[in-house]
Amino acid sequence: MADGLAVLDGKVVAVTGAASGIGRATALLAARSGARGLVLADVAADALADAAAEVAAAGGQAETVTGSVTDVATAGAIVTRAVDRFGSLDAAVNAAGTMGEAAEFTDYRDDTFRQVIDVNVGGVFHCLRAELRQMYEQGAGCIVNIASASVFGVHAELGPYVASKAAVVTMTKVAAKEAGRRGVRVNAVCPGLTDTAMLRESMQVRPATSDIAAAIPLGRVARPEEIAQAIAWLWSDAASFTNGAVLVVDGGRSG
Question: Which of 5, 9, 103, 194 allows an S-S link to 107, with CB 3.0 to 4.6 Å?
């Protein structure tokens, strides 16, 4: 039942951004690692249904919530579905995000800026607040927010994205101080370049990105499953004294 270090026996898990990339890999790992119930959320309905089917094939029981995390109602629905269907919410990862466009500040469009902030900051805030309220009632739980290693090794032309992920880091640290007294842990994972659709799209827009693996000491980009392992470890009892941590998983690039 366990996969590597990730042991989630009996836990109820919520995953945003579950239709693809890191979110999907984390949902699948949770199912393989003993989670007794999962709530998967994403704005992409068809891909979300495919992810739920994959989780079911791995032995997990999955409920889905289709909607954007920019909508407060979506965050509430995720928590309500977990409690109504499985009786609790023990672990959550707020993985939904967007990179926006690649442009210098002087050329950046207002509508894209608002979208990046709404999804990456507002979406994490909405979900984090709803998750914390439920976990406070239970007196236990663990939340992982997905930030980015770009916060520690900034890139030109991604100003709003980097700023939004820096906000996720600071929200995580504040929440950890508030939540720790109530038996709830909050941590962040900062992935480096990871082989996802978002990265592949970025490589098409910015061809120089295709050469960036050469700057990573391990010589390659991450697989989504490797980021999922870090998330699942933070959820597990093995990380029971880890709170307010910012775990950079980038192959050593920002070190």
Answer: 103
The structural domains of the chain, ordered by start, are: 12-249 (3.40.50.720)
- Angle at 144 (CA atoms; ends 127, 241), nearest 5 degrees: 130
Q: What is the DSSP string of 108-162?
A: --HHHHHHHHIIIIIIHHHHHHHHHHHHHHHT-EEEEEE--GGGTS--TT-HHHH
pTM: 0.92
pLDDT at 207 over 80: no
Long-range contacts formed by 211-215: CB under 8 A, 24+ apart: 215/253
Task: Determine the residue type at 42.
Answer: D
The burial of 83, by beta-carbon neighbours within 10 Å (0-12 exposed, 13-18 middle, 19 or more buried), is given as middle
What's the pLDDT at 214? Answer: 81
161 contacts 100 by C-beta, under 8 angstroms: yes
Are the C-beta atoms of residues 98 and 120 closer than 8 Å to each other?
Answer: yes
Q: What is the pLDDT of residues 95-121, one digit of tens each?
A: 999 999 999 999 999 999 999 999 999
What residues are annotated to the active site? Answer: 161
Q: Which two tokens stand for residue 90?
A: 């023990």
